[in-house]
Amino acid sequence: QVQLVESGGGLVQAGGALRLSCAFSGRTFSSYAMGWFRQAPGKEREFVAAINWSGGRSYYTDSVKGRFTISRDNAKNTVYLQMNSLQPEDTAVYYCASRRELGTVSMNRDDYGYWGQGTQVTVSS
Description:
- This protein is mainly β.
- It is about 0% helix and about 50% strand.
- The protein contains no helices and eleven strands.
- It has strands spanning about 5, 10-15, 20-25, 35-40, 45-50, 60, 70-75, 80-85, 90-100, 110-115, 120-125.
- The strands form two sheets. Strands 2, 4, 5, 6, 9, 10 and 11 form a seven-stranded mixed β-sheet that branches.
- The protein is globular.
């Protein structure tokens, strides 16, 4: 069975940076597109970023373009989210997700079959 475990969340001041990591196990990591989603209290879980199977293509929601960077290291079975210039509005639980048996980028949460437990990111002003 596929398992995903996020890490790297924490408390940071506005303008600061964090790097989230997601460790993947159970299947062939390099075959799957990966994504990051986030959920703030009282809000729906929303798409943040995605990366295809090889790492050659990525996609971001408009609110994080120019600030966040998604990457992957298939040799380490790990996907990353580098978050720069963080703002209080970025405060949320961040979730890592993988597609099932597809390697192309998607921003649709229904296209992702496996999810991690989430890691809390809190940005103070």
